[in-house]
From TrEMBL, chain B:
Function of the protein: NDH-1 shuttles electrons from NADH, via FMN and iron-sulfur (Fe-S) centers, to quinones in the respiratory chain. The immediate electron acceptor for the enzyme in this species is believed to be a menaquinone. Couples the redox reaction to proton translocation (for every two electrons transferred, four hydrogen ions are translocated across the cytoplasmic membrane), and thus conserves the redox energy in a proton gradient.
Spans traversing the lipid bilayer: 6-25, 32-52, 64-88
Protein's name according to its UniProt entry: NADH-quinone oxidoreductase subunit K
InterPro entries the record matches: NADH_UbQ_OxRdtase_chain4L/K, NUOK/Mnh_C1-like
The keyword Iron-sulfur belongs to this UniProt entry's keyword annotation: no
Cellular component terms (Gene Ontology): NADH dehydrogenase complex; plasma membrane
Catalytic activity, as annotated: a quinone + NADH + 5 H(+)(in) = a quinol + NAD(+) + 4 H(+)(out)
Pfam families, per database record: Oxidored_q2
Primary enzyme class: translocase
UniProt membrane topology term: Multi-pass membrane protein
Matching Gene3D superfamilies: 1.10.287.3510
TrEMBL record, chain C:
Transmembrane segments: 6-27, 34-51, 57-79, 91-112, 140-162
Species in which this protein is naturally found: Cytobacillus solani
Stated name of the protein: NADH-quinone oxidoreductase subunit J
Signal peptide: none
Cellular localization per UniProt: Cell membrane
């Protein structure tokens, strides 16, 4: 565990190596990426196992000394970090493997792997950071990796726009995080998590300041995790390659926001207002994104909105003091959402379209992908015995136990929506008859299906580490020795589990009626105004266009006016005067000796006249 | 006894000098510029000779000095005309405006 | 200042000299200008005689009116002169220079106006050439020899300057 700092260095090595030598290796660069990510996964696993038996390890050294302040850099392996390490390195390793098949034949294959390495390095560095400053550095690096990978197909206009949008939207959140961080440093005098928590516990920071900083940091998490109102970048980010969506925009980076809130959990619990904000935003995002997901036609967009919605769930869990529930769902979600994305990538790889209206009847053709997709769908829908069921149940219990009845029912409705749209997606893609020419559909190669199988197994069994039936092992372990994080397991009424089950089954049933059996017409939905609003994502993008963009553009027009006519006028005036003077001077430097002589003589004549008139010094 | 005072000779020298100066600084033809310079030297000679007769200590030295000036002027004209001819070969002009390589 | 022969001689000689100078400035043809200058040089020789420097007057006529003028004429003949084509000097510069020269002349005129050191009777006019010869070969022997070196250098320089290009042209051809 003392050498946990090595883990992020493997992908960094991969990045550096591929950036410099990738061009010669071509497709062979995949092996380097896979091998090095496997190494960091194995090492993470070792660290996790070691962490079961030994206490938190923290190593730091002084990085900068500014006056009395010492900034440190180092790494920390606590329960949350160890768990995150394994999740990130595992998903990264599987995506590395999967990409070998998916990206096959791409011209910039090695660049893709180099970016993957960079991103994995940043993400692993992020989860190992023991202080806010280091977290922030890796936080930005993660954003950079995401930007590069979304814009990987930069020759596509949409991809370029999406990359820019993702970068700018998350940046808005990052500013919040930065301000919160600075305020905390101002108040506490340290970036260290431990010292911040100690100061908060000791009451050294006023409650208003705690609320303010917590909310500001939460804004950073909102940006990164695609929570309302900064969620619009996440669906657009689907312009990147699908494995990237699985890695970054499902399992790891977007979970970084949740991770940040989780690792600063003691700060949030110290302020009821901050917790409430987190819970409300989370719940609202959950139902808001789920409702949009009901009607989207692009397979990746449905999954993207589902991601936004599930992240909302996690925020709701954290906001309801359900630390374990949030982290648990983060873990299970990482597995089944990565699975869903990879399966979707496999489908796209087979049919070369993302429009689900054009798919259908793929069950018989994709004998491997189909069942795997079904497992993922069942898991996310919260069907009993799958992982999503347990973690979602935990969240509902946490919300109920915290007394947020309204939020609880919102979450239940969101669960119903989730089940409905996920099965709508499943039935549209796999059941019925093919709705377009699908003759050349081939199953993906095993290099793509094997990672999916691994994820599918995890999507089923990952839930059993923390169940009300077989023991709450994960929860106990996570909260061990840290009472600030709350109880390992929150007891809730058993009817909640039944409600959750019924709701998800109801959603599945409804989807089956409409999209598979077709006993209910789809048209009544399609014609309504509600449908249009949902299909256009509540016009959020258009709203931003109208308000933020227009105002900004107007402001920039005014500023540009000032720039061109006032600032530049002054600058041009000054420079013009100087260069005019220079021109005047250079006109004397004509190279004509006669002119030089004339000038010299006139100067002499003036001196002599002055001397003759005044009489010089002597008079 | 001389009936013409020193200042009259000096004034003549001054006038000739000014004419030579004006010509040297305004004329475009290099030959005229050279001639104007000769005129200025001559004006100086008038002063020298006038002082050799009407100065504080009249002596022959002023005339000797004027003699030296003439020798230098002759040498100057010889070199000047040689330069002029060389220039004319290279540039095909005697216009002083076009002699501006000093600028570069 | 009394009306004497000397005075008339001075006035007429000075007038010719100044008129020659003014003609130098105002004539258009270069040959005419040089001729106008010959008048000036000759009248300056006359002024030298008035100043009891007979030898200098002779040298003035020999060197200036003779040698220098001839060299100038050679220079003129060896080059092309289309005076009409030549652009005129800028009016502004002419005006400025004129004002400058006027100021210069004014300042010096203040200096020399009524300058009089009182007249001391001299023997300059007696055996003028002999006096100059004695002084040159005794007191001023070193400057005299240096002048000969200068003249030699000028001679060599003039030949080199005008010959150098001929060789180059010969090579080109």
């Amino acid at each position: 565990m003392e050498n946990a700092w090595i883990i992020p260095l493997f992908p960094l090595l991969s990045f550096l190596f591929l950036i410099f030598f990738g061009k010669r290796l071509k497709e062979a660069s995949a092996y380097i990426g896979i091998l090095l990510s496997l190494a960091s996964f194995v090492y993470s696993l070792l660290v996790l196992f070691e962490r079961f038996t030994s206490p938190t390890h923290k190593a730091e050294s002084v990085w900068l000394t500014i006056g009395d302040v010492q900034l440190t850099a180092g790494f920390e392996v606590n329960q949350l970090n160890a768990l995150m390490l394994v999740i990130v390195s595992l998903v990264s390793f599987l995506v590395h493997t999967y990409s070998k098949g998916y990206m096959h034949g791409d011209e910039r294959f090695h660049v893709y792997y180099a970016y993957l390495g960079l991103f994995t390095f940043a993400m692993l560095g992020l989860v190992l950071s023991p202080n806010l400053l280091q977290t922030y550095i890796f936080w930005e690096l993660v954003g950079l990796g995401s930007f590069l990978l979304i814009g990987f197909y930069f020759y596509k206009e949409e991809a370029k726009k999406a990359a820019k949008k993702a970068f700018i939207m998350t940046r808005i959140g990052d500013v919040g995080l930065l301000i919160g961080m600075i305020l905390l440093f101002w108040q506490v005098g340290s970036f260290e998590y431990d010292e911040i928590f100690a100061a908060v516990e000791a009451g050294a920071v006023s409650s208003t300041m705690i609320t303010l900083t917590a909310i500001l940091i939460f804004i950073g998490a909102v940006g990164k995790s695609g929570q309302f109102p900064l969620h619009t970048w996440l669906p657009d980010a689907m312009e990147g390659p699908t494995p990237v969506s699985a890695l970054i925009h499902a399992a790891t980076m977007v979970a970084a926001g949740v991770y940040l809130v989780a690792s600063l959990f003691p700060l949030f619990t110290a302020s009821e207002t901050a917790l409430m904000t987190v819970a409300i935003i989370g719940a609202f995002t959950a139902i808001f994104a789920a409702s949009i997901g009901l009607v989207q036609k692009d397979i990746k967009r449905v999954l993207a909105y589902s991601t936004v919605s599930q992240l909302g769930y996690m925020m709701l869990a954290l906001g309801s003091a359900g630390y374990v529930a949030g982290v648990f769902h983060l873990m299970t979600h990482a597995f089944f959402k990565a699975l869903l994305f990879l399966a979707a990538g496999s489908v796209i790889h087979a049919v070369h379209t993302q429009d689900i209206e054009k798919m259908g009847g793929l069950w018989k053709k994709l004998r491997v992908t189909g069942p795997l997709f079904l497992i993922g769908t069942l898991a996310i829908s919260g069907v009993p015995l799958f992982s999503g069921f347990f973690s979602k149940d935990e969240i509902l219990i946490a919300a109920w136990a915290h007394g947020n009845t309204v939020l609880f029912w919102l979450a239940v409705i969101a669960a119903f929506f989730t089940a409905f749209y996920m099965f709508r997606l499943f039935f549209m893609v796999f059941s019925g008859e093919s709705r377009s020419d699908m003759k050349h559909v081939k199953e993906s190669p095993s290099v793509m299906t094997v990672p999916m199988m691994v994820l599918a197994i995890l999507a089923v069994v990952a839930g059993y580490v923390n169940t009300p039936w077989f023991g709450t092992f994960l929860g106990d372990w996570l909260t061990e020795g840290n009472p600030a994080l709350g109880h390992g397991h929150i007891e809730g009424p058993s009817w909640i589990m039944i409600v959750a089950t019924v709701v998800s089954l109801l959603g599945i049933f409804l989807a089956w009626l409409i999209y598979s059996k077709r006993s209910l017409s789809r048209d009544w939905l399609g014609a309504s105004t509600l449908y249009t609003i949902l299909y256009n994502k509540y016009y959020i993008d258009e709203l931003y266009e109208l308000t933020v963009l227009k105002v900004t553009k107007g402001l920039s027009l005014i500023l540009r006016f000032i720039e061109t006519f006032i600032v530049e006028g002054i600058v041009k005036g000054v420079s013009g005067a100087v260069s005019g003077l220079g021109h005047l001077g250079s006109r004397f430097q004509s190279g004509q000796i006669q002119r030089y002589g004339a000038v010299a003589f006139v100067g002499l004549a003036i001196l002599i006249v002055v001397f003759a008139v005044t009489g010089g010094y002597l008079k | 006894m001389s009936s013409v005072p020193l200042s009259a000779y000096l004034a003549l020298g001054l006038i000739l000098f000014c004419i030579g100066l004006y010509g040297a600084l305004t004329k475009r033809n290099i030959i005229i510029v050279l001639i104007s310079i000769e005129l200025m030297l001559n004006a100086a000679n008038i002063n020298l000779v006038a002082f050799s007769k009407f100065g504080v200590m009249p002596s022959i030295t002023g005339q000797i000095f004027a003699l030296f000036v003439m020798a230098v002027a002759a040498a100057e004209v010889a070199v000047g005309v040689a330069i002029l001819i060389a220039l004319y070969r290279n540039r095909n002009t005697v216009n002083i405006d076009e002699v501006n390589t000093l600028k570069h | 200042m009394t009306l004497s022969g000397e005075f008339f001689a001075f006035i007429s000689l000075a007038l010719v000299a100044v008129v020659g100078g003014v003609l130098l400035l105002n004539l258009t043809k270069v040959v005419h200008m040089v001729l106008a200058l010959v008048f000036t040089f000759v009248s300056i020789a006359g002024i030298f005689i008035l100043l009891s420097a007979e030898f200098l007057a002779a040298v003035q006529i020999l060197i200036y009116s003779g040698a220098i003028t001839i060299i100038m004429l050679f220079g003129i003949m060896l080059t092309r002169h289309d005076d009409t084509k030549e652009p005129k000097t800028g009016l502004l510069r002419k005006l400025l220079l004129f004002l400058g020269i006027l100021g210069f002349a004014f300042a010096f005129y203040i200096g020399i106006y009524n300058l009089d050191f009182g007249e001391v009777s001299t023997t300059l006019h007696e055996n003028n050439t002999e006096q100059i010869g004695i002084a040159l070969y005794s007191k001023y022997i070193i400057p005299f020899e240096l002048t000969s070196v200068l003249l030699l250098a000028a001679l060599v320089g003039a030949i080199v300057l005008s010959k150098n290009d001929q060789e180059k042209e010969a090579k080109k051809e």
